[in-house]
Amino acid sequence: MDKVAIVILNWNGKEMLRQYMPSVLRYSRDEAVVYVADNASTDVSLELLCTHFPECRIIQLDRNYGFAEGYNKALRQVEADYYLLLNSDIEVTHHWLTPLIEFMDSHPDVAACQPKLLSVADKDRFEYAGAGGGYLDRYGYPFCRGRLFDTVERDDGQYDTVVDVLWATGAALMIRSRDYWEAGGLDGRFFAHNEEIDLCWRLCIRGRRICCVPDSLVYHVGGGTLPKSNPMKTFLNFRNNLTMLYKCLPDAELRHVMRWR
Questions:
Q1: pLDDT tens digits, 89-143
Q2: Distance between CA 183 and CA 202 in Å, rounded?
Q3: If we measure between CA atoms, which residue out of 58, 40, 55, 24 comes closest to residue 171?
Q4: CA-CA distance, 231 to 78, in Å (whole number)?
């Protein structure tokens, strides 16, 4: 069994793989095994991997299962103490893995953690999808340290301490394999969006901790599969968020929140 398995879920993402896989391999290969799980791509992603990145282990899925069930299908084929779910549009940095591994090794009560996410487009600012770790407001809307709705902060070191959060971003999520499966994995019905929030919330309900470890730093493009303006993205975000609230909120609180929403 490997200690750390980095698993990148891909669907027609050859350009993202071409651009960002080199940094993943350069800065991770000594500490982790790198997998690419392919959601039945119709581009030349697999040919690209075989030709230019032969050290990657490939998991071929028979159709596009989406983010949530795609990871469930792929991770059943991976044996490792820690999974690291990594988006294909992430640029990692030197020494990014070590703080995550050391933190998880020394905190057995922590189920999952994330690095600090900054933007590829503006490397002095946080990135929307995860920033410095996430929470939910009283009505179930997600926000992060470094991002509130569409307002993204400049990174001036204001969130450079390890903290407990409610959810860690699925763009770069390190999680114990045992916790992943004991909590039931990602909810495949979500397809994509909010699935990592749902999983982390379920882990917190089980008494497990979720943390952000800002000594680890990565850069994220964001919106690589579905751009922000895509109506399917809007539908999935709202549907999955409401589904998550229905699953995780206590009944008395759920009635109030759903009436407001």
A1: 999 999 999 999 999 999 999 999 999 999 999 999 999 999 999 999 999 999 9
A2: 7
A3: 24
A4: 34
Q: How far apart are CA 258 and CA 261, in angstroms?
A: 5
If we measure between CA atoms, which residue out of 87, 85, 88 comes closest to residue 100? 85
For CA atoms 103, 106, 109, 111, the dihedral sign is: positive
The pTM of the full predicted model, rounded to 2 decimals, is 0.95
Residue with tokens 């400049």: 154
CA-to-CA separations, 148 to 23, 130, 143, 211, 236, in angstroms, rounded: 29, 11, 5, 19, 20
- Distance, in Å, from the CA atom of 156 to the CA atom of 149, rounded to the nearest integer, reads 19
Pull the structure tokens for residue 119: 């933007």
Angle at 113 between CA 194 and CA 129, to 5 degrees: 40
Give the integer Cα–Cα distance in Å for 85 and 66: 14
User: What does the alpha-carbon distance between residue 91 and residue 87 come to, in Å, rounded to a whole number?
Assistant: 9
- In angstroms and rounded to an integer, the radius of gyration of the C-alpha atoms of the chain is 17
**Reported confidence tier of residue 224, pLDDT bands at 50, 70, 90:** low
The DSSP symbol for 260 reads H
* All residues at 6 or more sequence positions from 256 whose CB lies less than 8 Å from its CB, including other chains: none
Tokens of 261: 């929403």
Where would I find the H helices in 116-205?
Answer: 177-182, 195-205
Q: Which two tokens stand for residue 24?
A: 């993943």
For residue 53, the 8-state DSSP code is -
User: Measured between alpha carbons, how far apart are the two ends of the chain, in Å?
Assistant: 45
* H helix or E strand, kind and range, residue 35: strand 33-38
